[in-house]
Automatic annotation (TrEMBL), chains A, B:
<dbReference type="InterPro" id="IPR043131">
    <property type="entry name" value="BCAT-like_N"/>
</dbReference>
<keyword id="KW-0100">Branched-chain amino acid biosynthesis</keyword>
<keyword id="KW-0808">Transferase</keyword>
<comment type="function">
    <text>Acts on leucine, isoleucine and valine.</text>
</comment>
<comment type="pathway">
    <text>Amino-acid biosynthesis; L-valine biosynthesis; L-valine from pyruvate: step 4/4.</text>
</comment>
<protein>
    <recommendedName>
        <fullName>Branched-chain-amino-acid aminotransferase</fullName>
        <ecNumber>2.6.1.42</ecNumber>
    </recommendedName>
</protein>
<comment type="similarity">
    <text>Belongs to the class-IV pyridoxal-phosphate-dependent aminotransferase family.</text>
</comment>
<dbReference type="InterPro" id="IPR043132">
    <property type="entry name" value="BCAT-like_C"/>
</dbReference>
<dbReference type="GO" id="GO:0004084">
    <property type="term" value="F:branched-chain-amino-acid transaminase activity"/>
</dbReference>
<dbReference type="Pfam" id="PF01063">
    <property type="entry name" value="Aminotran_4"/>
</dbReference>
<dbReference type="InterPro" id="IPR018300">
    <property type="entry name" value="Aminotrans_IV_CS"/>
</dbReference>
<dbReference type="InterPro" id="IPR033939">
    <property type="entry name" value="BCAT_family"/>
</dbReference>
<keyword id="KW-0028">Amino-acid biosynthesis</keyword>
<keyword id="KW-0032">Aminotransferase</keyword>
<comment type="pathway">
    <text>Amino-acid biosynthesis; L-leucine biosynthesis; L-leucine from 3-methyl-2-oxobutanoate: step 4/4.</text>
</comment>
<dbReference type="InterPro" id="IPR036038">
    <property type="entry name" value="Aminotransferase-like"/>
</dbReference>
<dbReference type="InterPro" id="IPR005786">
    <property type="entry name" value="B_amino_transII"/>
</dbReference>
Length: 354, 354
């Protein structure tokens, strides 16, 4: 199934949009590079991927993506160093997680080569689209969706795998205030919360809107049975620092196995930061805030990188986090972005040159 | 917002596919009528709906439907009686539920007129597509999805509402054997299980495939906290008859408020069938099967109508249901389809003439 592919077919765009892009004022995921990788599943197998001009997709109205939410995605970033080298961060982990998500959604798994060789070829073709300025990067969005037709509620017989890229600035702006959710839930035990499945995100929009109306930007999800334990924030995993210990919830079938989360845990060890991976109760966090032992909270994810949380809300009360001179968040963010952008050694072997 | 619309613009298809369709051998949702209703949300409002030729949809690769599963749908049927009159069954209930689903998914709600007048106009244009043979009908699929662009995980700014139709035969074929699920779950407390959201369906495909490999066609979902209580079957609500009492689970934020389910409860009352709407434990059903008091189980839904269950599996054991001469399922199916197809009086006022 996974025969090595040496050459990816490239169909070049006739004109480039790049001169119309203001690289000094990039928002997140709103402008798209000239090309995309396109790979089609039909007749029971993934066909060879191709680099093609970024172009609209045409589908039948009965295409299952419109009806049954059969889709998964990934998010990673490409960075360019001062010598114009292009770097990826743990891309094989994204590939593996994409297939884990696909399996749970009954989507056929991709051969590793199609993903890795396809991605690298795409980045070489669109290398001029990778921003170099601090805090910017080329956001990479691999996604797979059901393109096959029919109203029967069952897996499609055709799929599309696409990698599209968008030169992007930061995901959040301003101070991040989050609400610990006590009514709505993100995922069920035995559900698809661990997968990057499209439907997991749409289900968060309404509760997040309600939180936004109260002055928060994001929701911290809790378990759906008791709402007593902190899970994740949808676009990022959550870390809490109580005294000098950094704590994050264990992954489960409800919580995404974040690559940034995993990397932070490893970096923290080498920095001699005491780390605990265990259940975190809402009560514990509120108590720690009240007695002054809650030092930091931050979110961690590819889009969010490490985003410090300035305050959290719980049961109609807001709790401010202190502003630290030497925060774990700032240190860990510097360590991880230095590795990602080739500004430091990479003792973990995470960086991949394109 | 909901100004009455007297005339829906109609763009007729230049040719009809109808002569290529074998109306005597219809499967479910595989061939589509000549036209569809199309209505676009942009600039902050739903634009006027139009009847247009059934045609492909063209979207940007960053369209949010591909990434975040922001979609909802409905299912209903049109029937033609011997006098060529066209009938719908409680279509306002489908409209209301579509908007309930939309709200939970942060999709803008539709004006009632756009749905109802649009649907009726579409059916008049494609009236020849409505099958007349016993057990066949025109399956109607209203759906709304996020067509707006961008990789930010937030609601789209543009949507499409489409009604497509498919002359269809029965949803299930053969004896229906179901598995009571003990590992996977369909929905969370505080989640989107009550909505007809696309993502709810994709999440069921993999556990259903596992059940199919064991010889079952469908999964009966249980609560995600304990797996002790029966919820629904994804494509249908579940009814259990113990002795002479018909029992179904109450609706909740995890269970779809099925229109067929609701109708059956009302018909059963007029037939003097004792009905209980309460939690049903798996243990109770297994016990009732063992001691001979479990008389019937059936699924109820628009696509499934009333589908008798021949056997259920639980913890590696199969339990056969008896074959009854005078089953509630057969009686209730006759009553509801007679109303739907104008073969009987309609004391409930459910039937709507197009």
């Amino acid at each position: 199934m996974s025969a090595a592919i040496n050459n990816i077919e490239i169909q070049k765009a006739k004109t480039s949009k790049i001169s119309s892009i203001d690289f000094d004022n990039l928002s997140f995921g709103k402008v798209f590079s000239d090309h995309m990788l396109l790979c089609v599943y039909k007749d029971g197998m993934w066909q060879l991927p191709k680099v093609v001009p970024y172009q609209p997709i045409t589908l039948d109205p009965s295409s299952k993506i419109f009806h049954y939410g059969q889709s998964v995605f990934e998010g990673l970033k490409a960075y360019k160093d001062t010598d114009e080298n292009i770097w990826l961060f743990r891309p094989e982990d994204n590939f593996r997680r994409l297939n884990i998500s696909s399996k749970r959604l009954s989507i056929p798994e991709l051969p590793e080569d199609y993903f890795m060789a396809g991605l690298k070829t795409l980045l070489q073709v669109d290398r001029d689209w990778i921003p170099k300025s601090e805090g910017s990067s080329l956001y990479i969005r691999p996604f797979v969706f059901a393109s096959g037709n029919g109203f029967h509620a069952s897996p499609a017989d055709e799929y599309m795998f696409i990698i599209a890229t968008a030169p992007s600035g930061s995901y959040f702006s301003g101070k991040l205030k989050v609400l610990i959710e006590q009514t709505y839930s993100r995922s069920a035990n035995g559900g698809v919360g661990f997968a990057k499945a499209g439907g997991n995100y749409a289900g968060q929009f309404y509760p997040t809107q309600l939180a936004v109306e109260k002055g928060y930007q994001q929701v911290i999800w809790t378990d759906d049975t008791t709402h007593e334990y902190i899970e994740e924030a949808g676009a990022m995993n959550i870390f809490v620092r109580i005294n000098d210990t950094l704590i994050t919830a264990p992954i489960s079938d409800r919580i995404l196995d974040g690559i940034t989360r995993r990397s932070i845990l490893e970096i923290a060890k080498t920095e001699n930061i005491p780390v605990e991976v265990r259940k975190i109760s809402v009560k514990e966090v509120v108590e720690a805030s009240k007695n002054g032992t809650l030092k930091e909270m931050f979110g961690a994810g590819t889009a969010a990188v490490i985003s410090p949380i300035a305050a959290f809300g719980h049961e109609d009360k807001d709790y401010d986090l202190p502003t630290l001179e030497n925060s774990y968040g700032a240190l860990l963010k510097k360590r991880i972005t230095d590795i990602q952008t080739n500004k430091s050694e990479d003792p973990f072997g995470w960086r991949v040159k394109v």
